[in-house]
Amino acid sequence: MECYITYSVKGFYAFTNENELIAKKLFQEDEIVARLIDIDDKKIVAEEMEIIEEVSKDYDKIIIESNKRLSDYSNEKITIQTPNQAGEYLRNNFEKFNMNDEEISEIYQRLTIYKIKKESASEDKHLIQAINSIDEIDETISKLIERIREWYALYFPEMDVIKNNETYIKLISQNKSKEKIMEAKPDAFPNNVMDLEDDINPQDLEIMNKYANSIFELQKTRKEIEDYIDIKMDTIAPNLKLIVGSSLGAKLISHAGGLKRLATYPSSTVQIMGAEKALFRHLKSGDRPPKYGLIYQHPQVRGAKWWNRGKIARMLAGKISLAIRRDVFTKTFDENAFEDFIQKTEEIEKGNPFPTKTTRKRKEEKGKSRNKKRKSKRRKRRR
Predict the structure, then answer these.
(1) Which terminus has fewer CB within 10 Å in the chain: N or C?
(2) What pLDDT, on a 0 to 100 scale, did the predictor assign at position 192?
(3) Does residue 83 have a cis bond before it (omega within 30 degrees)?
(4) Is 160 left (phi over 0), alpha (psi -120 to 50) or beta?
(5) 184 in a domain, yes or no?
(6) 348-364 pLDDT, tens per residue?
(7) CATH number reported for the structural domain that contains residue 44 in this entry
(8) Do 332 and 242 have their domain in common?
(9) Are 18 and 62 in a shared domain?
(10) Under DSSP, is residue 12 helix (H, G, I), strand (E, B) or coil?
């Protein structure tokens, strides 16, 4: 004799071959969401075990609707079939089992809210928001500094000798006039700074100082977020941080959409993450595929000879995949991973001191294609 087991938002049900209900184990009202979460996470809940034990006494074969593997069950009578006939029958006849659309909708709404809260509480989501904030702050600061340089030059054009933006903003925000700026950094300015009789309205100077101070505060906030990312990466992805650093590691996690998702990517995908446009161009027009994406920012890739960058990027992508999987699945830390990566990078550089004929030919072809594109653009402009 055989029976069929299925489940709904209310609990587990067992039916005969003729769809006759023979047993049921319902969830406690306050435990419904927790039970559904456990089932979604492929766990065997107490109610499922109880109904299996109950029907095992009278039936030789138990066909169960489940998202788990057969090896997860210790009962030899069990066979997994998803969906099975009991599940189809239950879903088509909810009213017979005291379930209505409103009740089911309410339970799924509670389940959705729970999942959203759980997802938003995960630490990698905070990390993603932080690294995205850094990019937006950098873009904002760049525009604001361009404006303050143009504006402050009306009052003190000699300040343009200060090329470092952070120093430039710090000097203006902490010193109210050109005299105090020159006192704070005397070596940066020539002795013959022009001093016009009609210098500047104090109100204009005050507003420029406040504007510079707001940029200075934004720069401090950026530094604090950067320190936060560094600490966060130490907590959730120490192996990845060791290999690529905090900033690049956070960018990879952000681009993938999460820590676990990055851990499921093959190294070939990690290698070209961030170069999607070049990849689609390769698929569409037959251009050469990209050799690296975001990982080009790694100093060992960026600083390598051009003919070795592809090899180093491929090897780095493999190291990143191993590191992130350690962080997510095994929770172990390999302190020698970075040294091993540096050693292999040096071996690649020593083993390939000069470009091969193939790489030279490719570079020549790339240069020719660029020249063709430039010529075609010029022709279009002339037309």
Answers:
(1) C
(2) 55
(3) yes
(4) alpha
(5) yes
(6) 999 998 887 666 666 66
(7) 3.30.420.220
(8) yes
(9) yes
(10) strand
Residues 220-266 have pLDDT tens digits of: 999 999 999 999 999 999 999 999 999 999 999 999 999 989 999 99
Lowest mean pLDDT among 76-80, 141-145, 211-215, 364-368: 364-368
DSSP 366: H
Kindly list the distances between the CA atom of residue 378 and the CA atoms of 83, 369, 382, in Å, as whole numbers in the listed order.
Answer: 63, 14, 6
Contact 231, 178 (CB under 8 A): no
pLDDT at 117 over 70: no
pLDDT for 116 beyond 70: no
**CB of 5 closer than 8 Å to CB of 100:** no
Asked whether residue 364 is domain-assigned, the answer is no
Q: Please give the tally of structural domains in the chain.
A: 3
Contacts of 236 by beta carbon, 8 Å cutoff, 6+ apart: 123, 124, 127, 259, 327
> Helix, strand, coil % (nearest 5) of the chain?
70, 5, 25
347/263 same-domain check: yes
By the 8 A CB rule, do 212 and 172 touch?
yes
Please indicate, yes or no, whether residues 336 and 267 belong to a single structural domain of this protein: yes
374 in a structural domain = no
